Amino acid sequence: MVKVIATKEAPAAVGAYSQAISVNGMLFVSGQLGLDPATGTFAGSDFKSQAEQSLKNIGAILKSEGLDFSNVVKTSVFLADINDFAALNEVYGRYFVEPYPARSAVAVKSLPKGGLVEMEVIAAY
What we know:
2 helices, alpha+beta, 6-stranded mixed sheet
């Protein structure tokens, strides 16, 4: 059975999608920008601030289902600038430990609201 997940501890969806969907023992978390859920604005104008907030948002969604970053099996990262890859690894490494989840990281032409990074994850219960 499909269950829609929503928490006020992460930014509300800015379009026709859910924060996350739970189905068959898996949690699919939609892409999270570095938006502060309290203000709806970016946590900062720099990459690291936005990446940190993106991961905090993911963490809040995971927590709402009794999960944490150790439950994550796959991440997808979208970068506005591939030159931020090293900074991504620095911030990412504070949230994920070995065994690391599978990960894709790609540069894209642009992100919603002019964001610098967007991350999505798949977690197992």
